[in-house]
């Protein structure tokens, strides 16, 4: 779920192009070893909690116990509890005994001595490389998108749905027509429709909400899949989270975000269901411990593992630039990535944040803040190494012009409206928490072919998922 961005002062301006950052990264972006996944790291004794060291077996058992409790607490949902408890038991049997080892997680080396993950050393110039790629690349159709929360991810989901549907691609959808892959449980292949029964031979796109677990995703998706995700400034993200998830225990009786931030530990209990939304949500979605101690070693390791798994990390504040990077990386066309903002909030439910509140959010969500700083910097390095700033400006302008054209053609109001003003109730977005989620009205004079294409641009996430 996502929304229109809330304007606050950032480390880099939202509008215009920042200078090439001198930021060198928190971890140097790679270990001096072969690339490691989350699962490789946990083959050793790994710190995953508040200063407590767990073995692999303890970590996996703990995760499974949490899943069991969560599954048993979903009696009011559409989850088949018995079926997933059976899956839980099967997964528990597969836990392998850890190798006897007393070694700890390898600490990243001096970042100044390590090559950058996106180093341009020995590569052709950005313009030459781009021209060569245009002549040879084929559109990628095997895609994994980690759909993070409140980051414009619903708009990206719509882009992927439209691309896949128009090409008859197969989506790795949740069981029982669920809208999420049983989030907030760690993802397992058994959560995918048709996987256990083997009624689906191959999946092309995975893009619904999940808590990422690389080894399980790889069981489902082809080996050549393109992995990407998106991050957002934790300051604006927290303001959005508070509005949207107002009913979680941590926020329930708080008049506003400032009241929560005055003493967050007083209101936050990590053991209560859904309270993970209140702290380091990006870290949680990527599969890490959102309650871990904030130390350089843990952050470095998290960043390294993300970079070793994902081909591209986008930035919500630069959504159009992100779409150009994505288009080029996937070898898609401009119309494939054009979109309207979906799941955006009305300005009525936005809260202006003081400078003091912003700093408190950075401290409270310090793990997310460090992830954001790192991937915001590498985002611009990626642009410099591939498209270049000037060409990016031109491509963004073309994308925005195309969006305006489609809005004039498709929409009656040429913009988003509050839910009370949406005439077709089947196109009304799901309303949750204290947020007022806006939608669109179609131009009533469209022919059937144009209407179908325009409708896919504005279809809310839940309706589109059910349709597929």
Automatic annotation (TrEMBL):
Biased composition (Polar residues): 1-10
Keywords: Glycoprotein, Golgi apparatus, Membrane, Signal-anchor, Transferase, Transmembrane, Transmembrane helix
Gene Ontology molecular functions: galactose 3-O-sulfotransferase activity; galactosylceramide sulfotransferase activity
Biased composition regions of type Low complexity, renumbered to the chain: 98-115
UniProt KW Transferase keyword: yes
A GO cellular component entry from the record: Golgi membrane
Membrane-spanning segments: none
Protein origin, superkingdom: Eukaryota
Region (Disordered): 1-29, 75-137
Pfam families: Gal-3-0_sulfotr (PF06990)
GO biological process: glycolipid biosynthetic process
Compartments where found: Golgi apparatus membrane
Topology of this chain in the membrane: Single-pass type II membrane protein
InterPro entries: Gal-3-0_sulfotransfrase, P-loop_NTPase
Residue ranges with Basic residues bias: 83-97
Keyword Transmembrane helix: yes
Membership in a protein family: Belongs to the galactose-3-O-sulfotransferase family.
Protein name, entry field: Galactose-3-O-sulfotransferase 2
Organism whose genome encodes this protein: Lepisosteus oculatus
